[in-house]
Amino acid sequence: MAALDQLNTYLTSSSYLGSATGVTLEDYRQCKEIPAGSVSEKELPHLFRWYTHVSYLMGKYPEFDHRGDKIPAGKAPTLTEAAPQAAKKDIAPTKEAAPKKEAAPKKEAAPKKEAAAKKEAAPKKQAKKEEAKTDAVVDPEKAKKDKLKKVIKEGGKRGVEIEGAADMGGLQFFCTSVELPEGDVDLLKESVLQ
User: Fold this and answer.
1) If DSSP codes are grouped into helix, strand and coil, which group holds residue 110?
2) Which terminus of the chain, N or C, has fewer Cβ atoms within 10 Å?
3) Cα–Cα distance between 158 and 29 in angstroms, integer?
4) How many domains does the chain have?
5) Could you give the CA distance from residue 16 to residue 24 in angstroms, rounded to a whole number?
6) Does 65 map to a domain?
7) Angle at alpha carbon of residue 14, lines to 9 and 15, rounded to 5°
8) How confident is the model over 87-119, as pLDDT tens digits?
């Protein structure tokens, strides 16, 4: 029997001993050689995982696997080579980062003629936005009517959706939501009544 430390090291990168794809009679043989309770989960976690798994398979499928195929014989791994390979994987040489090169200064593009025209148009757009804001502030009744109109429209859309679902196949219950009332109960009632 191989040393438990060597088996644990080998099983860090392998699931089974006798094959890369599944349990073999070689796994069963080596598992039987390990005395019960001699594998510590904290000290040898990979061997513990393998031992628990293979013990279960050995009891449930002693000769044939779950598909009815005969358990293959398998080939014993060479554990002396496995230990240095696993150690190499764990201790990989680290490369130091190369110092960053300073970027060459970027050349500024020549100003375009169109940019000047856009700068002149920007104040006009901002003036229109400010006018729209003042209109909304000045007439709260109009804003309220517009909002009510949008809420009623949204409620109507939801009603049509529910009606369509009911026509397609006997709707007993439904759940829907509306966004525009924004917590206003009166607007919510108007939305639902439509």
Assistant:
1) coil
2) N
3) 69
4) 2
5) 8
6) yes
7) 120
8) 444 445 556 666 666 666 666 665 665 655 555
